[in-house]
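USER: Write out one fold?

ASSISTANT:
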Amino acid sequence: MSAAAATPAVAEPKPELAGQTVVVIGGSGGIGLETARRARTEGAEVILTGRNRDRLSRAADDVGAQKTAAFDATDTAALRRFFHDLPAPIDHVMVTAGRPIHGPLLEMHSAQVQEALSGHIVIGLEVARNAVGKMTPGGTLIIMGGTGGRRIGHGVGIASAASAALPPFAAALALEVAPVRVNLIAAGFVDTPLSASLLGDQLEERRAELRDTLPIGRVVTPADVAALAVHIMTTTAITAATYDIDGGQQFV
């Protein structure tokens, strides 16, 4: 027998999300789009939503999305129609829609405070309300949050309180919708187009500061968050958990 014949064939690893469907609410760019891309490499079909139809179309072409829907995630009627029209089953839903609100507390009016404190929670709750009935047992709803609640500082304002509310919300929701799982990703600075729009001319300075001070020696990217999201999707014992991903930022 030849040496080649005696060598056993090594089976290619099966994609971890093969045959599954991943819905990304806010999937036209940044973390949402990168998560869709990572899910596709693991064999999933992906469905993307976003507010901007043109950006959404480009994102769909980029990752080979099965379906897209353009609407504002804060529009509860549109969100309800979207999930009503989706064929079951759905395996995983990731919510990246929404953005933090910063600024001095005393300069904010009451509507801004209400939006800042409840925005992510309301979107997460409405997604759960409409998606869970179509989700497979063991699938997961992943909500994006931040690590801002770990540290209070000037200029952060209400954002610290808003981010601090998300871990108990996700845990309580996980108990209500089980066996569907609910988990929270709490990110620090992530180098996304949203970060660029918020920081403007200060972006490069912020990147350099983080490279110099973070224990990981580099800036966290959307690909880092996407890898964590897919890990949560594929590890079916995880629910009601909060995962920090900030490169050690909150400790330095």
In short: The mean pLDDT is 92. The two ends are 61 Å apart (CA to CA). The first helix runs from residue 3 to 6. Residues 16-202+222-246 form a domain with the Rossmann fold fold (CATH 3.40.50.720).
